[in-house]
Structure formats: C-alpha cells, structure tokens
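Predict structure. Chain length: 125.
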Amino acid sequence: MLKLQVEGSREKIKSFMDDVHRNPSVKVLEQETGYKIKDGEVQPCVKCSIDHIPERRMSLIQIITTDGQKIEFKMFDMVQAAITEGIKVFAGRSVDIFSVIQEEKEAFRLWKKLRETFEEKDERS
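Prediction complete.
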C-alpha cells in the first residue's frame, strides 16, 4: 500500500484524481478530501491510500460484432471511458496484430510437425 497526498487547485486535483481512478494499475483503497493551511493560505488537499498493481498493465479487449463474431486483442496501459449507455472508448498501447498472427502461424506449423513426428514414431512401434 502507498499513501498519496495531492495539493493544488481544485480543478487540477480533480483532473489528476480522475486519471488515478481510471489507471488500471492503481486501485484507490480510501480517499479523504480536505483543506491544508500553507503559508497562511487555505489550499485544497486530497489524501489517499492506493495499491499499485503493475501486473494488470495488459488487458484483453473482446469485441463482439453484430453477427456474433468475436475479435480479441491485447492492450497495454488501457484506459476506458463510458461515452453513453453501452458505448465505451478504449485507449492504450497495442501490439502489432500481424506479428502476433505470424507467431501463431509459426507455432501452429511447429505443432503440426511435432504431431506428425510422434505419429510416425507410433506407427513404427
């Protein structure tokens, strides 16, 4: 657990805390909003306890088309926002799907070759 204290203008604190809440690698456990007196001035202040969960950096996105087909891809450091009821926007870093497809094809070819090799061994036995 980490403790975080944010000071500044209300608008900047709100904007920052919104980003913290949307960050998939940070879970806000408790949050306390208040004021702090600094140099004779009253300033807004937010204190919170957070868990940093770096292993959640990668998210799996699944899109289902109108004809029921599923499309899946991985996204790093994903942030999502609900635009309206049933409509969400996802932002983050993605991988090159064509290189992933190529890797899967190569892995499939290797699997087929291994299977054929073991089938030939079984036939000889």
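Summary: Residues 97-124 form the longest helix (28 residues).
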